[in-house]
Amino acid sequence: MFPVMIDVTNQKIVIAGGGPIAFHKVENLLRFGICAHIISPDFHPEIEKLAAEQKVILHRKKVEWDDVKDAFLIMLVTDDSEANERIAGLAKEHGKLVVHAEQTHLGNAQIPAVLIRGKLMISVSTGGASPTLSKEIRDQLEDQFDERYEDYLDFLYDTRQYIKKYIDSRPERRKWLKKAANSLYLDHPEERERFTAELTSAYPAL
Ligand SMILES: C[C@@]1(CC(=O)O)C2=NC(=C\c3[nH]c(c(CCC(=O)O)c3CC(=O)O)Cc3[nH]c(c(CC(=O)O)c3CCC(=O)O)/C=C3\N/C(=C\2)[C@@H](CCC(=O)O)[C@]3(C)CC(=O)O)/[C@H]1CCC(=O)O
Ligand SMILES: NC(=O)c1ccc[n+]([C@@H]2O[C@H](COP(=O)([O-])OP(=O)(O)OC[C@H]3O[C@@H](n4cnc5c(N)ncnc54)[C@H](O)[C@@H]3O)[C@@H](O)[C@H]2O)c1
């Protein structure tokens, strides 16, 4: 498994199956603003509610290859192992990302437990050994990487954009980028202004 962050803006994401696990997957996708298509003969009541709020798109039928062939990512969470296996095989053949929630080796992707603090994202995976442990480790990290990281990451992001725009010399860039990542600016937000003043006086905006 190779971890990678993927921009899924305007990409079609399909979930096959409409049970409690599908609902869990949908809730996770919604955290990222993703409106998924769900294909299933029936749906968990909470999924029906989300559909009424136009947060998911429902297709009341058994999954077929035609329903998923234009998807970017497919999550197979039906209780029909034959359908899960068949669609997973075709999806891999066609170079798609596919999560087989029960027999992971039949898919090529897995969903990690995630902690989000603004631009900071920490993903934990055990490669299917124990999703419970992934969740526990994520929960433990919540205290260490608390809400302060949200503003801190915004500061680092803005600083980085400025440095890339106004400093040409690579060693100088590195010097300032390393300086910005000092935990002083996490613990003492008031120091960020001093840093920015120093940076903009050394390298004024053109
Ligand atoms: C991380 C998380 C992300 C998410 O799904 O959003 C996620 N599972 C979560 C929770 C969770 N899932 C299960 C329990 C019950 C206790 C337990 O089994 O430990 C709990 C705990 C709970 O709910 O408290 C049951 C379970 N999970 C899988 C199977 C099938 C199997 O193993 O055969 C079974 C049924 C086993 C059985 O009963 O037979 C399979 C997968 N689950 C994965 C991800 C992938 C591996 C990731 C990894 O290893 O790190 C993988 C392989 C495929 C996939 O779905 O991508 C999410 C927590 C996120 C959060 O809370 O934020
Ligand atoms: N990854 C995880 O976190 C995790 C956790 C628990 C279970 N699972 C696995 O996920 C699967 C789903 O779990 P669940 O509890 O939601 O099951 P469930 O039995 O409650 O729901 C299955 C859903 O799939 C639908 N379905 C059945 N055949 C279908 C087909 N051919 N096409 C489309 N939809 C079809 C059913 O109508 C139902 O809505 C199971 O295989 C289970 O082993 C995964």
UniProtKB/TrEMBL annotation:
Domain of life: Bacteria
Domain Siroheme synthase central residue range list: 117-144
GO MF, any single term: precorrin-2 dehydrogenase activity
Keywords from the named record: NAD, Oxidoreductase, Porphyrin biosynthesis
Pfam families: NAD_binding_7, SirC_C, Sirohm_synth_M
Pathway membership, UniProt: Porphyrin-containing compound metabolism; siroheme biosynthesis; sirohydrochlorin from precorrin-2: step 1/1
Gene Ontology BP, a term: siroheme biosynthetic process
EC numbers, comma separated: 1.3.1.76
Catalysed conversion reaction: precorrin-2 + NAD(+) = sirohydrochlorin + NADH + 2 H(+)
Top-level class of the enzyme under EC nomenclature: oxidoreductase
Entries under PANTHER family matching the protein: SIROHEME BIOSYNTHESIS PROTEIN MET8 (PTHR35330)
NCBIfam families referenced in this protein's UniProt entry, alphabetically: cysG_Nterm (TIGR01470)
Protein's UniProt name: precorrin-2 dehydrogenase
Lineage, opening ranks: Bacteria, Bacillati, Bacillota, Bacilli, Bacillales
